[in-house]
Fold these 4 entries.
Entry 1:
Amino acid sequence: MTRQLPLQPAENRAGRTTFTVDVEDHRPEDGPAGGCSPRYEGMTRRLLDFLEAHGVAGTFFIDGELARRSPSLVREIAARRHEIGSHSYRHVTLECETPAGFAAGIAAAKARLEDLSGAAVLGFRAPAFSVTPPTCWAIDVLGHAGFAYSSSVVPGPALVGGYPGAPRRPFLWPNGLLEIPCPVGTIGRWAVPFRGGMYLRYLPPWRYRRLQAQLGEQADWTYCHPYDIDGKESFARLPGRGWIVSLLLRANRGITLRRWHRLAAHPAPPFAARLPELRAAAVLFEGQGSAPDPEA
Ligand SMILES: [Zn+2]
């Protein structure tokens, strides 16, 4: 159920876009144990160079395990004046976590990122936008861990994740945590997070423009992963993925930066700098889902 806070002007979008990056390694077996150099470091630096060239500061949600493997990369992202957020401890979706295990992991990941960056970590993004009705127990865990906001919900029925009934604009969970949901458009019955990832790479311009017209009062932000811009990565079947999905994830990687180039004409600050504005525009959402299992 949604309830308006005392009326505030809706977020002043004016076409401004916050740039976010989910820093993760989608082929961890290629890392030191597998004998190949992981490619995420180079691609993340390429994204840093792109943002710097466009005068944009973004929000980087970083996988905790990757922060352990690449501490200098985390320091560099912070030194180049971007916000550091957490992308969980070991990049598994919340359905694969228990409340107790998630709490321990997220506390360790937050502490590590704060130690490396020298700044408070305020934001969290769940792997694969996996805050859904069955996993919304994670919101209380994030509140206890000291996070100020989450950006982990696809509001509506979605092919991946999805939270039917969640507002398509910033909202406050019952514990006061701010949610900055993924901007979506509707195709058929599906909420499509068209502003990033594979969607940004594959949607034809006419479809993209139609979805863009549906943004309304949604917080306007975009997202990508280091691999989304890696046109030189060799093709391989990804862990836990079929051949077709692996091929889709590999192809069309020249599109992301072209579309980011256009979005960068009207950038918005990182989320941390927008929190007062986003909270003022937020509605209350009571959520619906399962309580955490105290035995877990
Ligand atoms: Zn991720």
Entry 2:
Amino acid sequence: MPVELIRTGIPGLDQVLKGGLRKNSTILITGAPGTGKTIIALQFIYYGAKDCNENGIFITTEENLEDIKQFAKNLGMDIPSMESKGRIFFVQKPLTTMKGGIASIKGMTDAIKKHNIKRVALDSLIFFEYLYPRFNGNKIEFRRQVLLFMHQMKKAGVTFLAVSERSVTDFDRLSYDMMDFVFEGFIVLSRIRKGSYFERVITVAKIRGQNHSLDVYPLTIGDDGLKVLYDQTPFSLVEKEESGFKQG
Ligand SMILES: Nc1ncnc2c1ncn2[C@@H]1O[C@H](COP(=O)(O)OP(=O)(O)OP(=O)(O)O)[C@@H](O)[C@H]1O
Ligand SMILES: [Mg+2]
């Protein structure tokens, strides 16, 4: 069967992926705070429904859904209009009120069937970390639960995008986490210093079974959302290489 690719909802990223994401694959987006992870997850769900006819569920650990919707609105996404049409669903799992384990997530697979859901975004894996703290002798249980959830999503036939946090995202010194190997796709966001300001960048570290670009690309965030400038190489990296030559 030929591989079916779906559009990500992030302008420019499909070109980097040489066509888009494999339908029904599992993708992890990681990066330091403020690098654009939540925006990517929001666009994946919103434009997936709006432009690709794929209904979606957005699971968030944020306290306040209204804040997220306002945040999305400032980036050009009218979440309530898609919600009222039954095309996207926002599920809130505030960390402070999670007591019942993932039992409540079991209803997710039913909802997927009922609403013909094709995309699920989870922002972020902190959700599981809270339930099964990794640094409490519980690392294995944490992984097991993430894996279990991932497999449920796979079985349900959706394309699953999860967000995870990482403090250091220097591409040359990236420390890997077990979860990076478990997901089929792994995308890293970062900022590179360019004189007195930082340039936002993205790289696709892996997509299993797919031929994608390994380059580092600049990205911009503005009123119309997050875009990948796929036909440019980051200035900061070019400079780094040039100064390397001079020293050598
Ligand atoms: N309307 C906007 N216009 C321009 N830039 C924006 C806009 N909204 C957000 N940003 C930028 O996007 C960044 C936040 O992106 P996002 O919330 O997706 O990051 P994140 O990686 O999810 O961060 P965290 O790890 O803290 O959740 C902010 O640092 C801000 O600079
Ligand atoms: Mg975020």
Entry 3:
Amino acid sequence: MKHRTALVVGLLCVSLALQRAGVAGQRLTAEFEEVQHFPGGSIQTSNTNTFPESSTISGSLVNLTAGGLREPHWHTPSEWAFVLSGTCRVTLVVAGSDHPAESWDFIQGDAWAFPSNAGHTILGLQDGCVYVAAYNSGSFDEISDSLGLSAWLTTVPAARLAQALNTSVANTALPNQGSSPILQGDLEALTAGQINAPLLATEASAFGQADQLQITANSHRFPVTYGVKPTITATGAGYIRQVDSTYFTSGVNFSGGIVRQDPGSLRQLHWHLEADEWQFGINGTLEVYAVTNQGQVLNGTLREGQAGFIPRGAGHYLYNPTSEPAYFAVVFNNAKFSTTSLPGFIGNLPLEYLAATLDVPANTLKSWNIAKAQELAAPQSTPSAVNTAG
Ligand SMILES: *[C@@H]1O[C@H](CO)[C@@H](O)[C@H](O)[C@H]1NC(C)=O
Ligand SMILES: *[C@@H]1O[C@H](CO)[C@@H](O)[C@H](O)[C@H]1NC(C)=O
Ligand SMILES: *[C@@H]1O[C@H](CO)[C@@H](O)[C@H](O)[C@H]1NC(C)=O
Ligand SMILES: *[C@@H]1O[C@H](CO)[C@@H](O)[C@H](O)[C@H]1NC(C)=O
Ligand SMILES: *[C@@H]1O[C@H](CO)[C@@H](O)[C@H](O)[C@H]1NC(C)=O
């Protein structure tokens, strides 16, 4: 008898320890790494170095000064970004296109999407520019894993560069070091508006106005705030503005959106069939709760400036426990992503199955107002009745 008790207590301790290890070992949210400063701005990274759970998506938070230029560069992971403040002039060169260069002035709420290894550069305009970018690789580091134009060309033998560019060796002398990943050039004139035509173009590229709505078939810009109607709104709960491959056909493996959750608002219980979810806390505070396919219960808090990660298939929700609205950017590593919500799932199952599975009388289930359940649910005016059935 004594042995049995000891065994039970022992097992209990092991199971508690495992549970605790699970909670401590796997997080839903994490801080970004330390800020790295450069002459034209700064960058913070979030990848598997500090957030191993975010195994398939990484991100960076970039702050450009007025005239600060993210050096022309490219990288293998696709990129999806949201402008958080200021204005960013983004130029993308897409291979194999009649109109290879696409330039846009992006403002708060705009999103861009760059295909794998498409060369691009980003300039902070008068008020500078802050953006958060996500990449479909967990270990990616924007600074060390991107090839920059100057870093490349300073490695090429002068004779080969001269030959390649149909000029003399004297004309291709480059300083020994590449420039900074974020440089502060003499670019004030560019930030004022007009820009000289690129060497291969007959005229300067037409910069899109911030509030222009047109999204061409191949555009890599999404004016999320202006151009995309909220896909989900609920009075007193907030909105979700979402962009996916129905808007964006340019072939990157991302979709995403901006979510506002008002005080007490609940993002409905749901899961994503084909995509991991990466989050960035823009402001406010949200409780995050998820259960993985392996049944591991995870919880966390997504605060301003933090990254969050929900593995594909994990049932999850977000809840705003504060008295202030909370905003977050969300990115999925699939251009087409699909979601099943709890009401959408159980509302399509025979009542008898649910009654048997959940061990709840069918009459109680009929009181679940599944048809009116919201994707963003406002706080309930009266405290919800505690379900004591079963
Ligand atoms: C961006 O950098 C500027 C200049 O250092 C700073 O004043 C500003 O607070 C930064 N913005 C963010 C959102 O970090
Ligand atoms: C530039 O290209 C033309 C045409 O192929 C060639 O004749 C000329 O020698 C080249 N000049 C240099 C400096 O390489
Ligand atoms: C993007 O998705 C396509 C189709 O699923 C896949 O073949 C391709 O490898 C993906 N590319 C990247 C960079 O993840
Ligand atoms: C939170 O972020 C949203 C979206 O960027 C912005 O509209 C709102 O003003 C911000 N709220 C605060 C308190 O900063
Ligand atoms: C997460 O779960 C633990 C253990 O159940 C609990 O103590 C903690 O308060 C929860 N945290 C949040 C943010 O919900």
Entry 4:
Amino acid sequence: MTIPYRPFGRTGVQVSALALGAMNFGARGNPDHEDGVRVIHRALDAGINIVDTADVYSQGESEVIVGKALADRRDDVFLATKFHGRMGDDVNRFGNSRRWIHRAVEDSLRRLGTDHIDLYQVHRPEEDTDFDETLGALTDLVRQGKVRYLGTSTFPPSRIVEGQWIAERRGRERVVAEQPPYSILARGVEAEVLPVAQRYGLAVIPWSPLAGGWLTGRYRAGGPQPESSRAARQPGRFEIGGAENAAKLEAVEALAVLAEQSGLTLIELALGFVLAHPAVTAPIIGPRTLEQLESQLGAADRPLPADVLDEIDKIVPPGTTLSSQDAGYAPPSLREPTIRRRPLG
Ligand SMILES: NC(=O)c1ccc[n+]([C@@H]2O[C@H](COP(=O)([O-])OP(=O)(O)OC[C@H]3O[C@@H](n4cnc5c(N)ncnc54)[C@H](OP(=O)(O)O)[C@@H]3O)[C@@H](O)[C@H]2O)c1
């Protein structure tokens, strides 16, 4: 198994075609720190060189575990984290303001045990904070050497474009990457986000490529409700019998048959699909255990043939998100199934 490397947008940095997400390390997933470190080391040994976390993942615990794992390996890893989510009761301990960003970055650097973050991402846009305020604060962090590159996550296309224009017109650092939700079951970003990212040369590192677990084979029609800490946190998104999930379940059944006919696991089919989009740099996988990591690593060197991609398009049409709970955000235009996911020809 070999994980190929891809350019990270137009930065000149090369990253592995799979990124390791650390959301599951800590109280909300796997509370065993040593086990988390083992999973991270195995991913790095397999060739993964980009790790994604966030301050809010288990309220800083994920960053602490990543920091432990990278203690002797920091220089070989492209380290990404995020700010925006609430980090305490105080009215200002969250958001995209200059005031919070300067505090949040110090907290993340301390927890990660490093003096710089390679990619510092705005976890979500915020309507009542001027984006120029946010980009101005982030530009200062780049100039101070605390941050190398800027990214966004789950930004609608208009906000992505706005960020590029602010950078150009006001001399701010440019956002170089977007982290959107994207999987076979959540294809809304094919409509505008992915084409916009391509137009501006942004790296794209999608989250939840297995739709949070729906594309692992554990969710099957007539089967039991799978055990998952996620179901407790977001019951609507993971309840197998929920009305909003009926279309997902139907698609999963068809995809399982397609995977078997294609000699792939459902996980390989799902990750291969995200990897195949020309705008995508590296899907962020989110294993909770070593076994889950092993089940995903092989996907990086099993590209899906065109006929398999065509069959997927018949099961979930391009541009379609089957449940708004998987969309992260759901402006109506993103759910219109009008845009092909691959260029013609
Ligand atoms: N920017 C954002 O807003 C945002 C949002 C979400 C995630 N992310 C990033 O994206 C990363 C990946 O997201 P994700 O965790 O939602 O990804 P995902 O790959 O869609 O889902 C991962 C889940 O799939 C299940 N799974 C994986 N392998 C399995 C296997 N072999 N057998 C059975 N179940 C398996 C596990 O569920 P169980 O834990 O239930 O076993 C695991 O937690 C995160 O770590 C984070 O870095 C970012």
